[in-house]
Write a structure and sequence with these properties.
By secondary structure, the chain is of the alpha+beta class. It has one domain: Macrophage Migration Inhibitory Factor. It has two helices and two strands; from the N terminus they run E-H-E-H. The protein has helices at 15-33, 52-61, and strands at residues 3-8, 41-46.
């Protein structure tokens, strides 16, 4: 605990970009939840643009507006 899933359009992150993302997300989660680094797991899940609405937007954003802590601007 905690586990973070980042769903995103496919992107070719360099190893350095991925490492920086993981470092920053991990640090933010540690700070917010008061956990050790080893307690944090992160999953990067690419979602094709043509599948975004059906797989992400409708079920996880539009249908859960009451649970979102940050809403997208689109």
């Amino acid at each position: 605990m905690p586990h973070v899933t980042i769903e995103h359009f496919p992107a070719a992150l360099t190893p350095e970009q991925q490492a920086r993302l993981v470092e920053r997300v991990t640090a933010a989660v540690q700070d917010a939840f008061g956990v050790e680094e080893r307690a944090v797991s992160i999953d990067l899940e690419p979602v094709a643009a043509e599948e975004w609405d059906a797989r992400v937007y409708q079920p996880k954003i539009a249908a859960r507006r009451d649970r979102l802590v940050k809403t997208p601007g689109y």
